[in-house]
């Protein structure tokens, strides 16, 4: 257990960040009034879906981005540029392919003028600590993904930072390699063998957050806000199969589905097109429904179990589930996902019937789909460029979200035979208006 009386190492005070949208006319709020702290001796996980601003927040803390509003202090000193007491491990290995392991690890201390002898001693110690002793002269192309990420950790540790920032450091690795590296990192942390005081980790893997952290901060999306703070009081080492572990995972799934539902219910009707959608296929939607309908779920699935059986993380599972909910084919009940009566019937339908249902549900529940159809109906040519709708979307969301939303509506519209779309010309058409 973390001693709550220890000193606060990091303070983030009412940080907001906005960026200009693709149209260049409006600014997209990515983070909104985010406040948090990090104490000496703790691991804190930032948990949230892609696009909620987790990585942006890490970059603000490290001093790589200046916030639009608010402040960051480390050990009482304001962060006004690259923070000297912070090192970061990224999702991509980001190694220099022309340098061997030792040179890759030494490059940081060299860049800030650490004497060569001290640099060499630090580097060799970091390489040994992270389990790469004997690979000093190997090049990145000669290493496995897990070993390359270990080089990334050694390169961070050699800087002897107070705070280690980790931006989804295990997500590019296969399941077994990621599990081994997590375990090794936790062992080093528990044994006090890493020259750091605290760890702040970004993840969208709920089990990973529960496995590693002392506290979990859940970020909502659009814009990113601290939605919940969850203490993790389970003693280390933690077992994923222990009832307290499973109960906490279930609690977080339920919390995140409730937050998503609240956001949708609160969506003002006047917002119109401001309903962002993930980039998903109709095959994925149908496959999810069929999986929930089949044994052992028989129409109602526990979200953590469903994620495990499909090999999904929240960025895979929630977008599918929430899109199906928008289409009135599933409902969320705490940590469960359940087929609606229409969803149950959908699974037993033939292809033509499925097309009709998805088309009808898209028109009834997705404003952009009905908007595109209305524009096509009103034009004598029954044609309209995609750019017209993309620009409208960018008044409400980022360019990336606009592209994803438009792509999903194109997929649904084609499948439901609401309209055609010419990829080469990037044009919608509606040849047989009613």
Could you explain how this protein is built, in words?
The chain has 434 residues and is an alpha/beta fold. The chain has three domains: 249 residues, Rossmann fold (3-Layer(aba) Sandwich), CATH 3.40.50; 74 residues, Winged helix-like DNA-binding domain superfamily/Winged helix DNA-binding domain (Arc Repressor Mutant, subunit A), CATH 1.10.10; 76 residues. It has 15 helices and 16 strands. Strands 6-7-8-3-9-10 form a six-stranded mixed β-sheet, sandwiched between helices. A four-stranded antiparallel β-sheet has the order 2-1-4-5, with helices on one face. It has a three-stranded antiparallel β-sheet with strand order 11-13-12. The radius of gyration is 24 Å and the shape is globular. It starts with 7 loop residues before the first strand and ends in a 5-residue tail after the last strand. About 2% of the residues have low confidence.
Primary descriptors:
43% helix; 16 strands; 4-stranded antiparallel sheet; 3 domains; alpha/beta; 434 residues; Arc Repressor Mutant, subunit A; Rossmann fold
